[in-house]
Structures are given as structure tokens and as C-alpha cells.
Amino acid sequence: MPRYQVLCRARPSDRGPSKEESEALQEALDLFNGARHLAYLQTQSELQAAFIADLELTAQSPAEPSPHEALVSYWTEQGLNKAAAEGLVRKLEKAGAPLSVAQLNAKVQRLTRIVPDLDLAQLVDRDVGVLDTEPGVAIRNLVLLVEAFPGKEVAAIVQRSPRLLYAADLPTRLERCLELLTRLHPARERKVVAPVVAEYPDLLYRMDYYTHVRMIDELPIEIQNMFVLADQGIGFLHRYYKRAKNNFVADTSDEEAGF
């Protein structure tokens, strides 16, 4: 099969794209957006099917709660040590939702099908609420995370912050946090702050307390350190992006400004 290459030729700076080229570009963008929407629908359909199958299995499971020892044994089989399993069973009992092993396993298998790379035992140990994740919310949230953090492993993000799987307000929360950090960060670019939020997804909740700040320097040191480059401190971050905007031309006003 022949191989093709797309070659780009430089255009004189005094000419803009022709009408035909603009139309071709718009057509390509429309095709891309259409393909992305179809991929979303396919993903949604597959995840809904997995949810339905497992919900039916859960509904058919025995309703009588299993003994405490049986539940502890189940979680040790999922990879928790005895102490952690005991603690998790106590948390589930305290939550007031006694389960049989069959019901519990159905819920775990449901989550495994949706996000197969999760360490489910550790995830539930961190937040027992994920066991009762509402199907439509989980499907929507996974898609939102994929779109907000392209190229990042959604399973790893959820593992670090399990409540993102069932957060009903995730659409507005994502936008609010990313918009605020983009405004505070010296780069003023979402593509710069988004990977940091993916690495520290609890920022989606922590930033609710700092909507009043005017500069990244006013955030707690712990949060500032999430954004610094090469462990150089917040001053270096300001200098770096100031020079980046000037194509890295040296600017002696940095020292005068105290950066």
C-alpha cells in the first residue's frame, strides 16, 4: 500500500488563507468534532451496558447480609491486609448499608468493568461512597475527565480522588477550578495548569477556599509547590513565563520587580 505525506509550504506573511483553504479547514474541523461526538456516544453506550448487566446481577443477589468475617475475608482476597480489611468492613457497617458478599462482589465487578485499571480495594477503602456510584453520573464524569485532561490516565486520577467518580457537580467544579488557576498562573494558559490538576485532583475541591486570591503567590505554600519548575520556587516560575512570553529574551526588569 503506498504511503502518503502531507507537506506544509511556507506562505508569504502578507497573504492570508484563501477561501477554499478556509472552507477545507472548517470541513476538517467539522469532521473531527463529529468523530469525537460519535466516540463519546459509543463510550457512553458501552459503559451503560456494563452498568445494566451488573445492576441486574446485584438485584438478583441474596439480600441477607453476610457475616462480618465473610466480608473481611472478601476484602483480603481483593488485596487488603487483615487490618485494612477489618477497618473497611467497619466503615461499611457504620455507613448503614449491610451487604452480602454476592452483592458486594457485583458492585466491585461493575466498577472494574467501567475503569478496569483501578485498584478497587484501595479505592473503596479510601471512599466507600464509590460502591453506590450512580451509573449516569459515573459515565458522564469519566468522559469529562478524559476531555479535561487529554493524554492523562483517568484511572489514576480517580484513584487519587475517588469522589470524582460520583461528584454530581463535576462539570461546574472542573470549569471553576481550571478557570481560577489559569487566571492565577503566570502562564495564563489552561494547558499549563490542567496537567497539574490531573496530578493533584483534590485541587478541584481545595481551590473552593481560594477564589478570592489575586496571584498564585497568595496560595498556601503546599499548593504553590505543585506548580513550581525544577524546585526553583515561585519567583522562578514568574521569571520563566515572563521570558517565555518574550521568546526568552533577557529582561533586567525581573530583578527590579523582585522576581
Please render the helix and strand layout as text.
Layout: H1 19-60, H2 68-77, H3 82-94, H4 101-114, H5 120-126, H6 135-148, H7 154-160, H8 170-184, H9 190-199, H10 203-206, H11 221-227, H12 234-245, H13 253-257
Helix pairs in contact: 1-4, 1-6, 2-3, 8-9
Question: Could you give a short description of this structure?
Answer:
The chain contains 13 helices and no strands.
Find the count of extended strands (DSSP E, 2+ residues).
Answer: 0
The radius of gyration over CA amounts to 24 Å
User: Number of helical runs?
Assistant: 13
Structural class: mainly alpha
How many domains in all? 2
User: Which percent range describes the beta-strand content?
Assistant: under 5%
Mean pLDDT over the residues: 80
Element string (H = helix, E = strand): HHHHHHHHHHHHH
Return residue spans where pLDDT drops below 50 for at least 5 consecutive residues: 3-10, 252-259
| Main beta sheet | none
Based on Cα principal axes, name the global outline: flat
Distance between the terminal alpha carbons, to the nearest Å?
A: 57 Å
Helix content: 55-70%
